[in-house]
Amino acid sequence: MTNPYSAKQWLQLNMQQQGLLQPLESLPKLIQQLSYVQIDSINVVERAHHHVLHSRLPEYSATMLDAAMSDKTVFEYWSHAAAYLPIEDYRFSLYRKQQLQQGGKHWFEPEHKVMREVKARISAEGPLKASQFTHESDTKNGTWWDWKPAKKALEQLFMQGELMVAKRDKFQKVYDLTERVLPKHIDTTAPSDTEFSQHLIQRYLSAHGFGNLQQIQYLRKGLKPLLSQTLAQLCEQGDIASFTDSSANTQQVYFYQPTQALPTVIPNKVWLLNPFDNLVIQRQKLKQWFGFDYQIEVYVPEAKRQFGYYSLPILWRDRFVGRVDVKADRKNHCLLLQNLHIEDNLFQMIHKEVDSREAFIPALIEAIEHYAKFNGCMRWQLVQSNDAGITQRLIKACELGG
Question: Considering the entire predicted model, what is its pTM?
Answer without folding.
Answer: 0.92
